[in-house]
Design brief:
6 helices, alpha+beta, elongated, binds zinc ion, single chain, 2 domains, two-stranded antiparallel ribbon, 31% helix
Length: 189
């Protein structure tokens, strides 16, 4: 894989750079560490545009990727594909220190929250690609709507048909199934 970095000297005034990255399984998995998702291959299109002759840049990440995860509802190992698209504005860190007040406390303006800072020499793309993936992924590791029938079938198979029916009647979130079953078994003793 190419190094995911853009040297600013590569971009002249108003220049736009289109980059393509093929990310392997290890690379994607590393980026998704601690999320409960494991990565398969991914393809990312990154566009970087210099704003005039300034050190500000507009950047977008368009990524198609596949992940493997254990569904928290049906307890099956699943593969699903996602499309991520995120936009960023990049500014040099020196802009930030220029705004420091006398007490050396950095005052961030609300607009800064969408801004990523660079060191003035290069833009490291990996965290931005990672963010585009995280934004596209659901917070909970569950089968998506497309697979809801499949998820329900596996849930009934894995957790028990009767438990699923009980829950349907009680209108309880299916994820509480194992807990309810445990509670029932405890009552039997
Ligand atoms: Zn599922």
């Amino acid at each position: 894989m190419n190094e995911m970095k853009v040297q600013m000297s590569e971009l002249a005034e108003n220049a736009k750079l289109a980059l393509h990255f093929d990310l392997n399984t290890d690379c994607v998995s590393e980026m998704l560490a601690d999320t409960g998702y494991e990565g398969e291959n991914a393809e990312a299109e990154v566009s970087v545009e210099r704003v005039g002759s300034s050190s500000d840049f507009r950047l977008s990440v368009d990524i198609k990727f596949e992940v493997r995860f254990l569904c928290g509802r049906c307890l099956e190992l699943k593969n699903e594909k996602f499309d991520g698209y995120s936009k960023f504005v990049l500014m040099p860190k020196s802009n930030l220190s220029a705004r420091s007040n006398a007490n050396d406390e950095i005052e961030l303006e609300p607009a800064d929250l969408d801004v990523v800072f660079h060191d003035g020499e290069s833009i490291v793309l990996e965290p931005l690609v990672r963010e585009a993936m995280l934004e596209a992924l659901p917070t909970h590791n569950l089968c998506s709507e497309t697979f809801s029938d499949e998820c329900r079938e596996s849930f009934e198979k894995n957790i028990g048909e009767s438990a699923a029916k009980d829950l349907e009647i009680a209108q309880v979130d299916l994820r509480w199934g194992p807990l309810l079953k445990l509670k029932k078994n405890l009552k039997k003793d």
